[in-house]
Design brief:
Elements lengths: L2 H9 L6 H13 L4 H14 L3 H12 L15 E5 L7 H11 L4 E5 L9 H5 L11 H11 L1 E5 L6 H13 L5 H14 L4 E8 L8 H17 L3 E8 L7 E2 L1 H12 L5 H17 L6 H13 L2 H12 L5 H4 L9 E6 L4 E6 L1 H13 L13 E4 L6 E2 L4 E7 L2 H12 L2 E4 L11
Parallel strand pairs: 1-4, 2-3, 4-5
Antiparallel strand pairs: 6-9, 7-11, 8-10, 8-12, 9-11
Helix pairs in contact: 1-3, 2-4, 3-8, 4-9, 4-10, 5-11, 5-12, 5-13, 5-14, 9-10, 12-13, 16-17
């Protein structure tokens, strides 16, 4: 069997066997198949597609290309959630401690932000001392003791996916649904997930720009889960505008803590409750998602979700004073409120523009090696459908110098579109 023959076969639109896929992934992981061959194969997949059976075989080949966690003896049911990425999406920071407070242990391995989409690890690292590099034994020990872990992805888990993802990012093959679906699901399976809630973002600030694309991705991932012997539920959520108000690492963490404390923006709070409800139902902690949501609401109301988050920070070495007093988190040198330039109804608040503005302020990275500034970001004070009077606060910028402030202001103003007539609010879910 030769790599070039497998590339040619997929180039010609033919279906690969399980053995061919396993051979290719195994050889690529070991360095026996060159990057340029893997790039050619990825482009063939993008152009020719894959059957569901092929995608499932690819998912499992990548999932078991390295170490795989078995959490069967650690938790009754290993439930995880995955978001396809969005602007202001700090859902994990609220959902995970909330479901853990409801008696559902959650061990999560998250990633960092790249481009306009923020990363969970970057938000948590706003807390001085917080460790995101737990070893597998530390992960399991903390999951048993605390019932909640939030750390980085181990390099030993699904290494094939890590290698292939890096190639996709520079070869124009990121948008392939078979490659996206197998990438996401391989990491979840390798991390021991038996049940997964998939939060598929759709809109201007998401990788899936249309509902049709998002539905295709969601359907593909849930079918992979079924064929791989896992349970999965997919939600389609709006990402045409930022989720919540805060965009930027420390700002989003503050908003998450406020939500765990019983406050926070209503759209973000409701989004978290829906996701948490589905996780609790999937794990059998509630008869259905609605009942799960009621349990989650109770955990937020009685303070147990907040206390669970606090225990998480303590367990992973973070300065818990930042949870007790979020004003101790990193703060930008300049905090300036920008007023609305006109009166009217907001008809558009482009999430991608907001996310890119935060990156330009230093709050994100264009390359994996870029350093980020935890303090900078944007707070939006109104959403699509709101009526705003000229001169009233529209958004607040958190910047480190006057030049970046001026640039960010100009960029943010282009994110808004105004209407002279009322505009309906955007849905949270489709």
């Amino acid at each position: 069997m030769r790599a070039v023959d497998i590339i040619i076969k997929k180039r010609d639109g033919l279906e690969l066997t399980r053995e061919e896929i396993e051979f290719f992934i195994r050889g690529f992981t070991r360095g026996e198949i060159a990057d340029y061959q893997a790039s050619a194969w990825a482009m063939a997949v993008l152009l020719r597609g894959m059957s569901l059976r092929e995608i499932t075989d690819l998912t499992l080949a990548m999932a078991y290309s390295g170490e795989a966690l078995d959490l069967a003896g650690v938790v009754p049911v290993a439930v995880d959630k995955h978001s396809t990425g969005g602007v202001g999406d700090k859902t994990t920071l609220v959902v995970e401690p909330t479901v853990a407070a409801c008696g559902l242990p959650v061990g999560k391995m998250s990633g960092r932000g790249l481009g306009f989409s923020g990363g969970t690890l970057d938000k948590m690292e706003s807390i001085p001392g917080y460790r995101t590099n737990l070893t597998v034994p530390e992960f399991i020990s903390q999951l048993r003791a605390v019932g909640l872990v939030l750390t980085g992805q181990s390099a030993d888990l699904a290494p094939a996916d890590g290698k292939l993802y890096a190639l996709r990012d520079v070869t124009g093959t990121v948008q392939s649904i078979p490659l996206i679906a197998s990438s996401i699901m391989s990491k979840k399976i390798a991390a021991g997930a038996q049940a997964i809630v998939l939060d598929v973002k759709v809109g201007q600030g998401a990788f899936m720009r249309s509902l049709d694309e998002a539905r295709q991705l969601a359907d593909t991932m849930t079918q992979i889960a079924e064929l791989a012997g896992r349970k999965a539920v997919a939600l389609l959520s709006d990402m045409n505008q930022p989720l919540g108000s805060a965009v930027g690492n420390a700002l989003e963490l503050k908003e998450a803590i406020a939500t765990l404390s019983g406050g926070g923006p209503e759209d973000f709070r409701q989004h978290c409750l829906v996701v948490a409800g589905h996780m609790l139902a999937l794990a059998g902690k509630a008869p259905d998602a609605q009942a799960g949501q009621a349990l989650a609401e109770k955990a937020l109301a009685n303070g147990s979700a907040y206390e669970t988050f606090r225990r998480l920070v303590l367990a992973q070495g973070g300065d818990v004073r930042c949870v007790d007093d979020p004003e101790l988190l990193p703060q930008a040198a300049l905090v300036v409120q920008i007023s609305a330039p006109q009166s009217g109804w907001l008809s558009n608040l482009n999430a991608r523009t907001v996310g890119e503005t935060v990156v330009d302020l230093g709050g994100g990275r264009l390359r994996k090696e870029d350093k980020i500034d935890y303090a900078v970001g944007v707070e939006v004070h109104h959403k699509v459908g709101d009526y705003v009077e000229a001169g009233k606060p529209l958004f607040t910028l958190h910047a480190q110098d006057k030049h970046s402030l001026v640039v960010a202001k100009a960029s943010m103003l282009t994110a808004y579109t105004w209407s002279d007539t009322p505009v309906p609010p955007l849905p949270l879910f489709y």
